[in-house]
Design brief:
Layout: H1 4-9, H2 11-20, H3 25-64, H4 70-101, E1 122-127, H5 140-147, E2 150-151, H6 152-159, E3 165-166, H7 169-188, E4 192-193, E5 199-201, H8 202-208, E6 219-224, E7 227-231, H9 236-240, E8 247-249, E9 255-264, E10 283-293, H10 298-315, E11 320-324, E12 336-344, E13 349-358, H11 362-367, E14 370-372, E15 380-381, E16 383-391, H12 392-402, E17 410-411, E18 425-426
Parallel strand pairs: 4-9, 8-14
Antiparallel strand pairs: 1-11, 2-3, 5-7, 6-7, 9-10, 10-16, 11-12, 12-13, 13-16, 14-15, 17-18
């Protein structure tokens, strides 16, 4: 959520930045009209209350002197009704303002490339050289079933489209990847491992910006004990909200959390996209990185977090590139995002495997995430960052496609073998 001072006092700049994020001028203009009404209404309420207090004192004096105060009493009664009507309208206006604010995206950082979509993203660097094959490399949706480790048909039979069953070495490699990533981020990168609930309340989804804008993409559970509950779309939601409503000490920053969770997304806006294979599933595994950082150091933290996600790809010796996303391609809550895109030889293209974002104080304002400066003074909002470290299923895709052999077998990356019980190769079936 954006600060009201930005929306009110820096109208021109804020309007331009919001339009670069794809928001039309109408909602901001509506917000400004309502804000002006609210401020005028607050002044009028205080003025009416002042006049009512003066009239009440006058009534007391008239009665003391034995006079007739009926006219003044009627005026006070009318003033009270006016105040109640104004306060009722102010409550409505505040709700309308809040609803508009919840739909405003974060403002892009000045270093973000400006443009409406993916074509405007900026290549930051490429790491590793795509392997040259002396045979036609296959895509994972052919490799997995041929090896007997991925079964899309049985997944669909059990749960519908965009669900998959893993068997044998496929399930083992998925588990190995999870443990490999968690060990790397806790031991080498200093994150605290968390095992959060996989179901959260509406407030948590509101806090990180998934709601109300993206409710159609969420898996909602029927109300339980009066609460709307949701399967988490990413561990970013519970991890970022761990300290909602608290005031941290500045000395605690940055807080670094990592978690493995399954993630659940309805993918309502992606009908017809990536219908084959594991790439876009309703249920998938991910190891998430979240930082709550000091506002003055959050963009340094973004570079750090991105490098930590890159380290997974480097150790697995998977070629990848880093893209700075444009204003039109970034996620709703991000001020700046780097996408890591891994090379998939079966598709002959780079595909996203991680998004690493600095959300500045956008989520913190929604979730009430604050810290107390060491020298004292007013509590300040933290900056929140998140990134996939990595999406596990997509990492498995990259291993299958990059490490495939001419005979149909798959070599297991050396860094992963200790986590896979020493498994060096998935043999070809038959």
């Amino acid at each position: 959520m954006l600060a009201r001072t930005l929306l009110r006092d820096e109208t021109g700049r804020t309007g331009q930045l919001l339009q670069s994020r794809g928001l039309e001028a109408g909602p901001l203009e509506a917000w400004q009209r309502l804000d002006a009404e609210r401020r005028a209404g607050l002044v009028e309420v205080e003025d009416l209350k002042r006049k009512r207090n003066e009239a009440s004192r006058e009534i007391g004096l008239i009665k003391r002197d034995g006079g007739d105060a009926s006219a003044q009493i009627a005026a006070v009664s009318q003033s009270k009704a006016q105040v109640e009507a104004l306060q009722s309208r102010l409550t409505e206006v505040e709700t309308e303002l809040r609803d508009l604010e919840l739909d405003f995206p974060n403002l892009a950082h000045e270093t973000v490339p400006v443009g409406p979509g993916e074509a405007d993203n900026r290549l930051e660097r490429q790491v590793g050289e795509p392997r040259e094959f002396d045979f036609e490399p296959q895509a994972h949706w052919d490799l997995g079933p041929a090896l007997g480790i991925l079964d899309f048909e049985r997944g669909a039979k059990l749960s519908g489209a965009r669900f998959t069953v893993y068997f044998g070495a496929g399930a083992r490699l998925e588990r190995a990847l999870i443990n490999f990533m968690l060990d790397l981020h806790t031991t080498d990168h200093g994150y605290t491992e968390v095992l959060p609930p996989f179901i959260v309340k509406r407030d948590a989804m509101m806090g990180t910006g998934q709601l109300p804008k993206f409710e159609d993409d969420a898996f909602k559970i029927d109300r339980v004990e009066g609460e709307d509950l949701f399967l988490i779309p990413t561990a970013e939601v519970p991890l970022t909200n761990l300290h909602s409503g608290e005031i941290l000490d500045e000395s605690q920053l940055p807080l670094r959390y990592t978690a493995y969770t399954p993630c659940f997304r309805a993918e309502a806006g992606s009908y017809g996209k990536d219908v084959r294979g594991l790439f876009r599933q309703h249920q998938f595994n991910k190891v998430e990185l979240v930082q709550l950082a000091h506002p003055e150091r959050s963009f340094e933290a973004l570079e750090e977090l991105t490098g930590q996600a890159e380290k997974v790809l480097q150790l697995l010796e998977l070629p990848y590139q880093v893209m700075a996303l444009s204003t039109g391609d970034m996620g709703f809550g991000a001020a700046k995002t780097y996408d890591l895109e891994v090379w998939l030889p079966g598709q002959q293209r780079y595909r996203e495997i991680s998004s690493c974002s600095n959300c500045t104080d956008f989520q913190a304002r929604r979730a009430n995430l604050r810290f107390r400066p060491t020298g004292g003074g007013k509590a300040r909002l933290v900056h929140s960052l998140n990134g996939s470290g990595l999406a596990v299923g997509r990492t498995l895709i990259a291993i299958l496609e990059n490490y495939q052999q001419a005979d149909g077998s798959i070599v297991v990356p050396e860094a992963l073998r200790p986590y896979a019980g020493g498994l060096e190769r998935i043999p070809a079936s038959g």
